[in-house]
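go over my protein:
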Amino acid sequence: MSCDGASPTNGGSGTTVPVAATTPVGEAACAGAAAQFGYDVEDFCVSAVQPVVTTGLVALALSRLTLPASTLVVQPPNGRTLVNFATNFYTETQPFTRTITLLGQQVDLRITPASYGWRFGDGRSASTTTPGAAYPDLQVTHDYLTAGRVAPAVDTTYTADFRVNGGAWRPVPGAVTIPGAAVLLEVVEATPTLVGYR
């Protein structure tokens, strides 16, 4: 039992995904990768006699792809919000597809953002399966209790399905989480203003 010497490539960007070669060292690397991802060696590694694209090999390839980080949108805009105000957060990450080559075979991936980890920058966080929404459809909000500067962010966890050479779709085991970049946000106290009446 050994891993085939082919190196899968990202069909869209040409990114090479390393795979263990058919040498004793390559066999050890394949077994080590199987242990790392928690898969059975027989399922994860590929027979040199009849190369088969296994779910474990696809999972490894998915973990090596460059997946997009979600862009966090904050409302109110312009980098400022108020203390004790329902600040709105959302992102617009969408499902997408990638095509790669594994063991000389075409592998299509349907990659879906499955969950979102919201880090509000004040020590509190939340997790959802939806990306939030723009005002007035408030789905993910947070009230800051004190004034100051914070750096909220959203991390996106992707899952995927795959098919080989146009065959049936199958789920890729596991998931990949991509951290999002922080957004600078200033939290200020509302200033009361006296209004004259006539």
About this structure: The two ends are 90 Å apart (CA to CA). The chain has one domain: 9-188. Residues 24-37 form the longest helix (14 residues).
